[in-house]
Amino acid sequence: MAERNPHWQPDVLTIVLRFNIQHQPTASAKIHPTMNRAQPASGTSKLRVVVNCTLMKIEYVILADGAQAVGGKLYILGGGWNVFYAQAFPAPINIGLGVNVSYTSNETGMTYPWSVTITDEAGIPIVPEMNGQVQIPQLPPGLPSVAVNRLPLAMQIGLAVPRPSKYTITVRFGDSTVNTDFNAIFVRAAPAATPPDMPEPNADEPRN
Length: 208
Prior knowledge:
The chain is mainly beta. It has 2 domains: 10-54, no CATH class; 55-186, Immunoglobulin-like, CATH 2.60.40. Helices cover 11% and strands 40% of the residues. It contains 2 helices and 10 strands; from the N terminus they run ααββββββββββ. The longest helix has 11 residues, at 12-22. The radius of gyration is 27 Å and the shape is elongated. The N and C termini lie far apart (110 Å).
């Protein structure tokens, strides 16, 4: 066995390449034609395989009252909240999720699995996991092939919040995961506002 050179230090890129080459893609994802060879690639081909496996990621997740993805844009209504007030529990709520995923031309046509889970502070799901697949589209015309494009996605979720607690929403696309959370808080019903008593007009006073 050859002795290891004590002066040799692997660079960061070498470590990243080794880690990602050993990583296996999810079973439900379609593999790009350049990645389905059993024999290991060499030179720049090895780097290309790593790029295809790791570039797709979630840029952000926003919590909203409503969210729609139309024409390559996210339309958000009441976005950015993290506190939910209710006077009784279980309490119905309608959650909009706006998600932005980035990708490159190397990933067009590939299919990635996605999932959304909502759990309480103990990590117990309060609704069944939502999941499916999304296919990466072609880059818009005129965009350089090396550019990173973004794919907006939106989801509406209706559920009943069981009790006051902190809840975590976990969004996964491929190997990319982002968490966001909100707090459900109990509040007492505010007393109904009553208008002040108005004095009766004096019959002797002229009326306008």
